[in-house]
Each structure stands twice: as C-alpha cells, then as structure tokens.
Design brief:
With about 160 residues, the chain is an alpha+beta fold. The protein has helices at about 10-25, 60-70, 90-110, 120-130; strands at about 30-35, 40-45, 80-85, 115-120, 140-145, 150-155. About 30% of the residues are buried.
Length: about 160
C-alpha cells in the first residue's frame, strides 16, 4: 500500500488502493470508484477497459473481491460486505440468474420434477434462494461440492404455484 499502514486507513481506502494496484498490474486503464455505507464497501472499475476484468464468468472479479475483503478488514472488526464490480457485470449476472431461476420454477412445476441450475458460487446461490424464497409450490436446495455446487428447484407435492 502506498501510504499509511492498514490500521490508519479505513476499509474504503484499502479497497480503493487494492483495486488501483490490480488495474495497474493488469495494464488496464480504468478509474476506481469506492463507496462505503453501513452495510457494505462497494468498489467499481469504471471505463472502456473495465470489462477486461470480467473474465471466466466473473471469477476474476470474485478473486479481486475476496482480496479486497481481506484487505479492507485485515485484523479489524466489525466487518461488512465488500462488493467489487466492473462494467455492470454484477447487475447483469443477477438479472440472468433470476431469469434462469424463474424458468427453472416453471419447468419444475409443469414437469413435476427437480430442476438443477448450473454451478454457481455461494453469493449467486444465495441470490437465487432469496429470489425464490416466497414462491409457493417449490423448494430450493444446494447440491454438490465446490466448484460444481449448484442449486436445485423442486416442486413441493400438494402445493400450487
């Protein structure tokens, strides 16, 4: 880190510094915008080249996010969420997951069978579980081992959608 020790900087400053370092090391010209509120520290890579950080179905962003979380709260508490995004990937991915979940609900109910979604990380599985939480006539559960862990949408017999 360029200036100050981790104990003298706040979580947002540490996330900003890490993100700038990653962009520089990757040779990507991008701005970094970091905001902090009571629930989360959110860092966004902004600019034409920001999309280059969305590699391998968001795994590159997930890795940066993990490092940012570790950096933001190294040796401190309380902790809160850290979200790292680039080129609007997180919102597009959330929309795609919700749409896939809705399709799985239709198939599970119409065909009266469990429907497995593709493998996704824990954050994505949580998003889908929460999206479908109040749906009647179905249940959701996770199966498999990382990195192939996936969510299953299954009809509940005797209940209507």
């Amino acid at each position: 880190m360029a200036t100050g020790s981790p104990t003298n900087e706040g979580p947002a400053a540490r996330v900003r510094e890490l993100m700038r370092h990653v962009a520089t090391a990757a040779g990507i010209e991008t701005d970094v915008v970091v905001e902090e509120d009571v629930q989360a520290v959110t860092g966004v890579f902004v600019g034409e080249d920001a999309g280059l950080l969305v590699e391998d179905h968001g795994r590159t962003l997930d890795a940066i996010q993990h490092l940012a979380y570790r950096s933001a709260f190294a040796g401190s508490s309380p902790r809160k969420a850290v979200v790292v995004d680039a080129a609007g990937y997180r919102a597009r991915r959330a929309d795609a997951l919700r749409a896939a979940a809705d399709q799985a609900v239709e198939a599970a109910v119409n065909e009266r069978r469990p429907v497995a979604l593709t493998a996704m990380n824990a954050i994505e599985r949580k998003l889908v579980h929460e999206h479908l939480r109040d749906r009647h006539g179905i249940e959701t559960y996770s199966e498999g081992e990382e990195p192939e862990r996936h969510l299953v949408v299954a009809p509940v017999l005797g209940e209507e959608l």
